[in-house]
């Protein structure tokens, strides 16, 4: 073994030494593991892009303000594996860490949040693993969003794999609040002073009120479409 380039690591089995070839194989396996998540992310982004474009064309209305996606960094995965006490093997990480690929869909109105969720969830290649509705039941700190853990098929040269993706649906106001709260949480290392927590909860309530007002105004501008007289024509 080329001891100059080998690496010794203390594992549960004791001190283990890895050769350069073994290290390269581990790196390749990790890259392949992450690659599937990149493809899964792309599939979901494509589905959302299609819904957005088709909705604009058919209804002259765009329910999506913004879509952002990310694959968790290696450091962030390692941190989360340690924090949650997940066994450090690919099968366990795949099963337990469900937000390695994540997409955030920002809509103008809460009705669009649910509409988008229904349109994505209703697609027959999408499997819904879990839904958390923090809009119907906000977190105690005021956080609101609709979270869905979904699986989407990706076709690799080795065959079909189901990739898990976390999709967060929220309004602009919810997103504004969440990004500020995230910054505050990190600035105070998770120990936010009580006064700030109260202000944040108050701001979340104001954001929810603003959402409700904007939705009411929007409904006046765009009343729910009336049923059209039947013409015998079928729209595609
Ligand atoms: N800013 C902000 N983001 C949140 C909050 N709660 C959840 N999120 C976001 O939503 C993600 C998943 O949250 P949950 O669906 O509640 O998942 P969980 O059960 O807490 O599991 P984790 O993925 O371990 O956080 C987080 O990684 C954040 O991106 C919150 O209070 N503030
Ligand atoms: N589903 C998602 N879609 C898009 N962006 C996300 C999603 N989840 C988190 N992010 C963003 O990705 C960035 C990196 O986050 P990271 O993956 O390190 O941690 P996290 O998911 O926020 O938290 P945790 O590791 O505790 O689950 C942050 O700016 C975060 O807001």
From TrEMBL:
It is an enzyme of class 2 (transferase). Keywords: Transferase. SUPFAM superfamilies: Nucleotidyltransferase. Transmembrane segments: none annotated. It comes from the Bacteria. One of its GO terms (molecular function) is GTP diphosphokinase activity. It holds the Pfam family RelA_SpoT. The keyword Transferase applies. This is GTP pyrophosphokinase. It comes from Microbacterium invictum.
């Amino acid at each position: 073994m080329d001891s100059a380039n080998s690496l010794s690591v203390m594992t549960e089995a004791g001190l283990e030494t890895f050769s350069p070839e073994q290290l390269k194989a581990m790196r390749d396996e990790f890259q392949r593991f992450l690659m599937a998540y990149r493809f899964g992310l792309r599939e979901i982004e494509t589905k959302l892009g299609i819904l957005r474009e088709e909705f604009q064309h058919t209804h002259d209305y765009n329910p999506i303000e913004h879509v952002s996606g990310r694959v968790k960094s290696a450091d962030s995965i390692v941190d989360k594996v340690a924090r949650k006490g997940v066994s450090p093997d690919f099968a366990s990480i795949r099963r337990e860490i469900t937000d390695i690929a994540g997409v955030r869909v920002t809509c103008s109105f809460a009705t669009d949040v649910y509409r988008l969720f229904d349109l994505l969830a209703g697609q027959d290649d999408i499997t819904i693993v879990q839904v958390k509705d923090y809009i119907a039941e906000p977190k105690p700190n005021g956080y609101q969003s609709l979270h869905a853990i979904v699986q989407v098929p990706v076709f690799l040269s080795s065959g079909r794999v189901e990739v898990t993706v976390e999709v967060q649906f929220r309004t602009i106001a919810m997103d504004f609040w969440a990004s500020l709260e995230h910054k505050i949480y990190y600035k105070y290392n998770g120990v936010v002073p009580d006064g700030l927590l109260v202000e944040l909860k108050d701001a979340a309530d104001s954001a929810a009120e603003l959402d409700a007002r904007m939705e009411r105004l929007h409904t006046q501008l765009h009343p729910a479409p009336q049923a059209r007289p039947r013409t015998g024509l079928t729209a595609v």
